[in-house]
Amino acid sequence: VGANRLADALRHGLTPTAEAQVCCAAMSAVSKKQKTGGKDRLVAVAFDIDGVFKYGREWSPDGFEALQKLHNAGIPHVFVTNGGGGLLESTYAAGFASKVKGAAANASGEVPLMSEENMILSYSPWKRALGPQLANRRVLLVGDPREKVLQVAQSYGLKKAVHYQDYAKLHHTINPFRAAKEDGASHTAVANAAEGPIGSHSVGTAHFADDDDPFAAVLVMCDPYEWFEALQCIVDILCSPTPANSEYDASVPPVPVHFSNPDVLWKAQHPYARFGQGAFKIALRALYKTRLRSLRVPEEMHDDLLASSFRQWGKPTDATFRFLEERLREYCPPTSGQRVENFYMVGDNPASDIEGVRRANIFHKSQGNAVTWSGVLVQTGVYKEGDETNGATTTVHGVAEAVEWILKKEGV
After folding, report:
1. Which of 169, 265, 299, 412 would give a disulfide with 407, using CB separation of 3.0 to 4.6 Å?
2. What are the C-alpha distances in Å from 139 to residues 291, 347, 379?
3. Residue 106, burial from CB neighbour count under 10 angstroms (0-12, 13-18, 19+)
């Protein structure tokens, strides 16, 4: 099940899961008291995090009060980020809540919902969309820290997830530089410890029981620390789902590779933007095509092989926005007889947050749906006054003004 299939499933409606029922219970009291100026409509809000609630290492002093106002108006909200850092939603939400509350000038009164129920990380949709299908299938897990991403995979029900570093250690000739790095030696033949005539070594020929079990998918959850090792492992698996047994298997299509976010660059502590997961995808694409050429796979097949394998998630993809809609609708009481059709996205990035809004509106219009998204662009992150807005509904200074604008528009 990939991004396109999720979009189809969400469009036709999904049976509420236990997780969905928890979400509904958590927010039903809020949504029941939603007041929108007497209008016969329900609304909900999705917030980006970076550039909205935090700016680098600094947190907005206005975030807590803005969320309180939304909560008091009975308008459900979620947080959605293209990050996650390989953390559990509960862990990320706890840290987020602590920072937002700690930065507030006045954190008294009822605390608005900031928990795993309404925290959507870049890979959060995978729990529902991929977890059931891959629960007992072998998958390669890419991302670091190793222990954290394995914990997330376990929480998603992925019983046979293999971390790329563990796979490379087990098959230690995959990465010719690993042993040299650990020993502080050179990887060249004249400098390594191997001696003897040809055929006298069995290095790299060991066979393990799992080697006959084909990989069903590759999940790029977050940025890997070891790009070379991760890229080599994925390319090997793309060429053959049993890479320890064969170099290339033309009898089967390449396994799906799921990327949790498309961001090529991101703002870290360095004064200039750093490469992100989108850059890793670009590198993987180039190396896979290069490897196909070396295997003499006809050039005209390359793009089709890539298109059948690479699956993109995260903002601004349709799959992630359908997931946002599903999650926000779960917060409405099932007996209300109404469904949320009006969504707001508060973000700082025209190419991610507002592009997602633009695509969502195109999708719903093409389906004849009454659903509308409005993009509220803040000036505290990527977007600066005077930049191209990509069709944002409005631009405001920060999160406080964004919430005020939404409440005013809804007549609250």
Report:
1. 412
2. 21, 33, 40
3. exposed
Flag whether pLDDT at 12 surpasses 70: no
d(CA 96, CA 15) in angstroms, rounded, equals: 30
Per DSSP, helices labelled H in 62-157 are: 63-72, 89-103, 126-129, 131-134, 146-155
Distances (CA, A) of 275 to 55, 131, 259, 382: 18, 28, 15, 16
Which residue's entry shows tokens 């995979």?
A: 153
Tell me the C-alpha distance between 48 and 50, whole Å: 6
Cα distances (angstroms) measured from residue 42 to each of 87, 120, 182, 342, 374: 32, 21, 58, 7, 14
Neighbour-count burial for 128-141, b at 16+ CB within 10 Å, e otherwise: bbbbeebeebbbbb
Cα separation, 366 vs 360, in Å, equals: 10
Return the beta strands (E) in 190-298 as ranges: 215-220, 257-259, 265-266, 274-275
Q: Are 214 and 230 in contact (CB under 8 A)?
A: no
**CA pair distance 405, 385, nearest whole angstrom:** 17
Hey, what amino acid is at 287? L
Tell me how far apart the alpha carbons of residues 402 and 404 are, in angstroms, rounded to a whole number. Answer: 5
Q: Per-residue pLDDT tens for 64-83?
A: 999 999 999 999 999 999 99
Which amino acid, one-letter code, is at 156? Y
Average pLDDT score over residue span 130-148: 97
Contact criterion met (CB below 8 Å) for 260 and 220 = yes
